[in-house]
Amino acid sequence: MLTLSLVPLSLLALAPRLGLCDDSSDSDSSSNSTATPNLKQNSNNCSCYAIGSGSSNSSEFFSYHRFYDFRSLATSADQFTTPDPVSDDEDQGTEGVVADDAGYLNSTGFMDDWEIQNWSTNASADFPVRMVNTARNIYISDDTGNTDIEYPTYLTMRTVRLADFSSASEMQNNQQNMMHASVRMRARVVGASGAVAGFFTYYDDDNEADIEILTQYPSNQYEYTNQPSVSKDGNEITAATVNVTMPSSDAADDWTQWHDHRIDWLPHRCNWYLDGRLVASNSYSVPRKPSGLVLNMWSNGGSWSGNMTEGDAAEFHVQWVQMVFNTSGPRGGPDAETKKMRRSARLLEEREWPEEQLGPGCETVCRVDGVKAVGYPEVAYVSMGGAAGLVAGHAVVWCVVAAVGALLAWS
């Protein structure tokens, strides 16, 4: 008699011997046991990615994975030096990255996926200091505190207060069509009061999920927001923001130290994590539009950000960024076809994968949490012949097995 059942995880190791739940027909799988996955794209041996999210640790599933590692960009000691800030006369944002950093920051690999910004804002009553973004404030630094890598590095984003303006930094990921995601970074913030470090998904001011670290706040305080946080009549929307103050007695929670930061943007809720701990959750104004990922470091003299003293600076240090996400629409974002196409958007369209590449279903489910090395997803379980399917951003993964005598013997 033919019996259908679900395969326990303990039997997955036996499945190849029995010819069950075998993904060896995948053209990429023949060398997966030894090859390093191309982490910028989907890992070769993964067809979807599972994360635990929320207090119940329920699973959420995503189709795409990216990992950007800034920890080992040097090939010799003291390879990178800190560039001088812009001068008072350099106030147009047209400066490029310095020569030491150009090999990486001007490389095709970086520029295909990231765009350094140079937009500016004028001073106003609410924001009394003019702000100008410049590539000069994004650079690679030697990480003297990291002993795990021979020549360790990290990416630095800086803001500096000059006499007539604030020199800031921002970069956005060119994947502008994320529709629900788990975005993470390992980072710290150091420097003077009056600056804001931001890590957030963004479509517009009404579709934005933020992690913000304000250097005028105590170093154990973090701000997590779903925008908008201010109403049209200028009043604060208290439901928008969750301010989290970690125990002051625990210096390990200080934002001047390295931490893993994470936003899970889900269909009806955003969750925020610090070093794997769920610290905030909010169902108010969850982003509803396909979005991109932005990192910035800025100051504009406003009452919220604080007013940085002339000549002072603050820095946002980033070791890595990881993204797992689903998509909707073109990779340049929902407005890509109606606005002037940027070089980055064109490149993304050229690299778009055909839908067939994902296969008929989620055959190999990989986890990104609890892995041996961050950024390297590991196979969690395998389904048979694409029987698993992604439905409304979630996956039901199962493996049907014909329980013949051989399988019964193992069970």
UniProtKB/TrEMBL annotation:
Transmembrane helix recorded as keyword: yes
Signal sequence annotation: 1-21
Keyword Metal-binding: no
Transmembrane segments: 387-410
SUPFAM superfamilies (UniProt xref): Concanavalin A-like lectins/glucanases
Residue ranges of domain GH16 in the record: 77-329
InterPro entries: Beta-glucanase-like, ConA-like_dom_sf
Keywords: Membrane, Signal, Transmembrane, Transmembrane helix
Domain of life: Eukaryota
Name recorded for this polypeptide: Concanavalin A-like lectin/glucanase domain-containing protein
Organism this protein belongs to: Phyllosticta capitalensis
